Amino acid sequence: xxxxxxxxxxxxxxxxxxxxxxxxxxxxxxxxxxxxxxxxxxxxxxxxxxxxxxxxxxxxxxxxxxxxxxxxxxxxxxxxxxxxxxxxxxxxxxxxxxxxxxxxxxxxxxxxxxxxxxxxxxxxxxxxxxxxxxxxxxxxxxxxxxxxxxxxxxxxxxxxxxxxxxxxxxxxxxxxxxxxxxxxxxxxxxxxxxxxxxxxxxxxxxxxxxxxxxxxxxxxxxxxxxxxxxxxxxxxxxxxxxxxxxxxxxxxxxxxxxxxxxxxxxxxxxxxxxxxxxxxxxxxxxxxxxxxxxxxxxxxxxxxxxxxxxxxxxxxxxxxxxxxxxxxxxxxxxxxxxxxxxxxxxxxxxxxxxxxxxxxxxxxxxxxxxxxxxxxxxxxxxxxxxxxxxxxxxxxxxxxxxxxxxxxxxxxxxxxxxxxxxxxxxxxxxxxxxxxxxxxxxxxxxxxxxxxxxxxxxxxxxxxxxxxxxxxxxxxxxxxxxxxxxxxxxxxxxxxxxxxxxxxxxxxxxxxxxxxxxxxxxxxxxxxxxxxxxxxxxxxxxxxxxxxxxxxxxxxxxxxxxxxxxxxxxxxxxxxxxxxxxxxxxxxxxxxxxxxxxxxxxxxxxxxxxxxxxxxxxxxxxxxxxxxxxxxxxxxxxxxxxxxxxxxxxxxxxxxxxxxxxxxxxxxxxxxxxxxxxxxxxxxxxxxxxxxxxxxxxxxxxxxxxxxxxxxxxxxxxxxxxxxxxxxxxxxxxxxxxxxxxxxxxxxxxxxxxxxxxxxxxxxxxxxxxxxxxxxxxxxxxxxxxxxxxxxxxxxxxxxxxxxxxxxxxxxxxxxxxxxxxxxxxxxxxxxxxxxxxxxxxxxxxxxxxxxxxx
Length: 855
Hints:
about 850 residues, alpha/beta, six-stranded mixed sheet, five-stranded mixed sheet, about 60% helix, globular, disordered N terminus
């Protein structure tokens, strides 16, 4: 049985036992803990409109009588009914009034009820950061009061926020923590409802069968409880899953039944949420009239509730239909309405991580709009929408970092951050230790959950520090650059190639300082298949075996990606990739119609987005040049068996890069890299940290800040599951043989001030990371941009130690002795190395790529 299956079974058993032990009636009576969502059966004793009128009169009556505690409870019930009726902003007012009354009375439980309902209202309005903040406050009160059931429900509600924002694994963590706490009979409907959320999240993480079984169990419970709203939620979840599985008839039945149940129950807000799914199915099965009706009613209802997320899906559906009907102008108008909702919702969270995960779930909006604009012949606008979809969290991070938001923040917050870092690093070491010792799966899973919890705490604390900064309120979010602004950044020798991969077709824009050309390319699947075949061959040391298939894949990619612009190529090519193209070294692609690679005649760089260059240029324009040349950290000490621990800095045995995450062999050629750089730079203009001095402490101390170039020659660890823990590995032993933390992690680098013109990561796979759709790769490269680097030289695969040292020797000679730009120096070094008999294979020279500004 899989771990997830066991979780679901254990939760179901615990809930069943808890329910059986209570022996309470199936329909719990109305209670003062009124924070539960409007699937509470008592709310359906009357129609919502009638209940609203009754509660309004009751609030006034209790207020006149001075019965303040009862007034607060009635205000919460009124707010819940207002949400049901789509009056969410009014509901917030009711909840705030109830909270204030409870606070003045010292009623902590009543205050917690109000906080919970405020959080839910904010989530309906799409203000997810506010929702999480109020759930945090509620959780603290529930724990203080010992309200176990309420604590569990709060955890589940937090999980729902993360699920809405696209972070399914975090959602599962909260659901599995919260569900076992729902023990009383009064919480049976809410336990059943939470099973739907858990099931959805399981499906999102690839555990489809377990997810379906969990949701079906919820549906059975809701029907036994006579809870129509909970039943409708489960029906909708099953409809969505069957839709994704391609069973349209089953999906249609589930969706139609869901909408009918919600309409009969008077649940306008939930009906607005359900209708876009029904509309999409009707649209795909040819019932366009039915789809228009569903989308239009969803807009009507969501307009009443203020739910911008539901409005976005409905507008996008109408845009698709208008396009099918040939009304391209109407389709564009609807698509713009949809994008407006996405942009508004994206701006709500303070957390960059939530912004990124949310935008990843909304990439279909941008993809549709780009395709539509291309059909309308509006290539400049299509290019600008493509830019809107890319690396937005990186743009925000660059703007925030230059503003130095940590300055002026309460020292207690920064101390909490340092303490949390220590706990986080300890949790990471425990996880690695358990995994490497083949510990029981339950122990490993528990360690993983603990680590994820600490990572979330770290993100939340970073958000608190950001909000607490005196400079944050005045900081506006960075906006993507317009085409003309991007063109002003390009010189006559530069061609920008931006790719957008789509399900039905892809696009390429070729941008120069004075022109824009656009081209239609094959679908994403074809391009990414060829890219995958090429990358497998390029990254393999068995070049002879893979050569023929690799050559074919590279030839195909050259035709697909470069063929349309064969006559437009300039000396310098700047690539803005998409999907698998983020990990493709364009320099190795054959020049169209020839066998020579691009690097033979062209400088090649890459950018996360064209707008990134605009922000880098703007933010770094006033930065003075670094006064000294280069800082090198190389050849750290990884273990107590290293001879340097007892015999000084003696040379270590030869080894290749690329060992396991906790077993790092010394790198003798890394020391040669340092020596080659040393020969080119006078003593007064360089800093060298070798052996024990090549440490995390050296980096975090700020010692590297004055240097124009910062070079790391060591191992790296890629953690695509937890990109915050990807790390450069530095000395793990001090001069006395004692263990020290030697991992310079992504989240450490984010906090550095490192205004270098160039950072070189001479290690394995430093260009890679977790791919977040719309953001690109989240990892070490991005972290150094945020820390202040203008450009970063990184690797795409496990590089060979000796070949890397030789490439770096030639690179630095071109850079420091011949005074070439970094892009020109890399081109010269790779061309030189590939012509040597022992280094001709692309595996040895093509793995390093330069990202950032070429100027």
